[in-house]
């Protein structure tokens, strides 16, 4: 690994004056589920030779941290299915979390492997995680994930909470599939001390269904909730795009991520690194910068130059649209960029 002395320490500021302080790192494109809105049924995964090594991931994270990134989130695919992933988390924790260089190291997971790893994650300094969970109905869970094993996920969530991790559930709202479960999910989450964030389905990659049939506007969901509950906007921020409300009747919070019904790009502070070293400045755009090539060809100076180029290319926003028979906004699946 290159020494840190050659790295720049200039803040990462894009052309619109937004400071990038949040890095999402996909450590693998593989997953043990095949969620219908995230992957095609017959996904072809990358050969391991194309995936960044742990050392390369540490190198890139180090460059970002020295340029002002304060939060790192590990994603996938499913990050906890990558072999020896705990060794990478140990290294990132020692490099940056224990030294105070970053404020938070966290991950987004489907929960299937949490029972095995929750205690160690807490020991390494993780305080909260996001768990993707779209339904509490076992049959519906099997249909959405094309795999099932809801009990394994619920056991993982339980283990995470018992270990001391704060858990936020991410639920993709799907018309005609789980829209009637939003209230039960919220009440279950709040009764168990967890937050819930609702997410609009995003037009990323070809999937089996026509997304115009399944898109559910969260404006509609929020209006429905307001008929039954007292919703109060709060200033809570976690570094991501969610906007939060307090539910008086449950004493819990609910978040809304609305890339279609309300563009949240004006305060975007994040970029996404794929497991092959491609840096995407926007989830809804195809522009990318090859950090792996820059790092391998030109070392620290090349990596810094690539980060500067990325800031110039970071767009003002995305333009997600879901219409019948329309092509996805981008060809890559959600699992490629990282959830």
TrEMBL record:
Binding site for S-adenosyl-L-methionine: 37, 77, 132, 202
Cofactors named for this entry: [4Fe-4S] cluster
Domain Radical SAM core per the UniProt entry, residue ranges: 15-242
PROSITE patterns: MOAA_NIFB_PQQE (PS01305), RADICAL_SAM (PS51918)
Leader sequence residues: none
Pathway, per record: Cofactor biosynthesis; molybdopterin biosynthesis
EC number: 4.1.99.22
Cofactor details (free text): Binds 2 [4Fe-4S] clusters. Binds 1 [4Fe-4S] cluster coordinated with 3 cysteines and an exchangeable S-adenosyl-L-methionine and 1 [4Fe-4S] cluster coordinated with 3 cysteines and the GTP-derived substrate.
Keywords: 4Fe-4S, GTP-binding, Iron, Iron-sulfur, Lyase, Metal-binding, Molybdenum cofactor biosynthesis, Nucleotide-binding, S-adenosyl-L-methionine
MF terms in GO: 4 iron, 4 sulfur cluster binding; cyclic pyranopterin monophosphate synthase activity; GTP 3',8'-cyclase activity; GTP binding; metal ion binding; S-adenosyl-L-methionine binding
Catalytic activity: GTP + AH2 + S-adenosyl-L-methionine = (8S)-3',8-cyclo-7,8-dihydroguanosine 5'-triphosphate + 5'-deoxyadenosine + L-methionine + A + H(+)
Binding locations of [4Fe-4S] cluster 2: 265, 268, 282
Enzyme class, UniProt record, top EC level: lyase
Positions contributing to GTP binding: 24, 73, 108, 168, 270-272
Purpose: Catalyzes the cyclization of GTP to (8S)-3',8-cyclo-7,8-dihydroguanosine 5'-triphosphate.
Family in the record: Belongs to the radical SAM superfamily. MoaA family.
PANTHER family: MOLYBDENUM COFACTOR BIOSYNTHESIS PROTEIN 1, MOLYBDOPTERIN COFACTOR SYNTHESIS PROTEIN A
Protein name as catalogued: GTP 3',8-cyclase
Species whose genome carries this gene: Pelagibacterium luteolum
Protein encoded by which gene: moaA
């Amino acid at each position: 690994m290159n020494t840190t002395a050659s790295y720049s320490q200039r803040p990462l500021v894009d052309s619109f004056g937004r400071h990038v302080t949040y890095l999402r790192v996909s450590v693998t494109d593989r997953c043990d589920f095949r969620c219908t809105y995230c992957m095609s049924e017959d996904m072809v995964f990358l050969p391991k030779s194309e995936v960044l090594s742990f050392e390369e991931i540490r190198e890139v994270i180090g460059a970002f941290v020295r340029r002002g990134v304060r939060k790192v989130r590990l994603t996938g695919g499913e990050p906890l299915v990558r072999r020896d992933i705990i060794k990478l988390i140990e290294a990132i924790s020692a490099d940056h979390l224990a030294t105070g260089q970053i404020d938070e190291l966290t991950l987004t997971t489907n929960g299937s492997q949490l029972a095995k790893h929750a205690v160690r994650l807490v020991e390494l300094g993780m305080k909260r995680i996001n768990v993707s969970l779209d339904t509490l109905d076992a049959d519906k869970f099997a249909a959405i994930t094309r795999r099932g094993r809801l009990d394994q996920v619920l056991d993982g969530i339980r283990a995470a909470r018992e270990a001391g991790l704060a858990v936020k559930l991410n639920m993709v709202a799907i018309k005609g599939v789980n829209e009637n479960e939003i209230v039960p999910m919220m009440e279950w989450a709040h009764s168990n001390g967890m937050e819930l964030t609702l997410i609009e389905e995003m037009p990323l990659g070809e999937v089996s269904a026509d997304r115009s049939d399944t898109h559910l506007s969260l404006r509609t969901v929020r209006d429905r909730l307001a008929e039954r509950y007292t919703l109060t906007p709060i200033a809570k921020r976690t570094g991501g795009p969610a906007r939060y409300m307090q539910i008086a009747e449950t004493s819990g919070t609910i978040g809304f991520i609305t890339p279609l019904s309300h563009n949240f790009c004006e305060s975007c502070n994040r970029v996404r690194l794929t497991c092959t070293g491609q840096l995407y400045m926007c989830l809804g755009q195809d522009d990318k910068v090859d950090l792996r090539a820059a790092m391998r060809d030109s070392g620290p100076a090349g990596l810094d130059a690539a980060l500067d180029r990325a800031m110039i290319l970071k767009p003002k926003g995305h333009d997600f649209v879901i219409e019948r028979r329309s092509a996805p906004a981008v060809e890559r699946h959600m699992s490629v960029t990282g959830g």
